[in-house]
Amino acid sequence: MRVIQWLIYIVLMVFVAPLFAEPGYIIRSSDLMDEPYRDAVSLVELEVGSPVEIIKRKGGWLKVESAGKTGWVRMSKIRKGKVATKPTAGGEAKGVLNLASGRSGTGNVVSATGVRGLNEEELKEAKFSASEVEKLESFSVSEQKATRFAQAGKLVARELEFIPAAVK
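The structure corresponding to this sequence follows.
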């Protein structure tokens, strides 16, 4: 009897869950990627206002279906819900200005979206990449160059006390 319950659960998860995909639309033109990585293969370009069905989330990426294709789009390029008309550049600018002023949403509540780090499964699948380490190291600058940059921007150094370690 327990086996049958599990089989029913698995069938529901595999075949019924996709029926409950969440609607959304593209707010900035974006490529639909075959994998949730910046350097993945682009399947098609999605224009502003293109409707999508959000299937699942992985880090800062959303798996979506659009234009008869399934792929991945950065979460920041999608807004959940349905759109009656294509959003305008002015409308997006107004939204950003409202957010900056603290007047976002119907309750005038400011909110932000954050992306958590890697989950346990992603950490287990991680592989060392010498080329990525080399790429990361190419972004480093000398202390002298950083100081010149700060001075050019009229930045002022401030001393901050360390936050004491949390007591466990």
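The radius of gyration is 22 Å.
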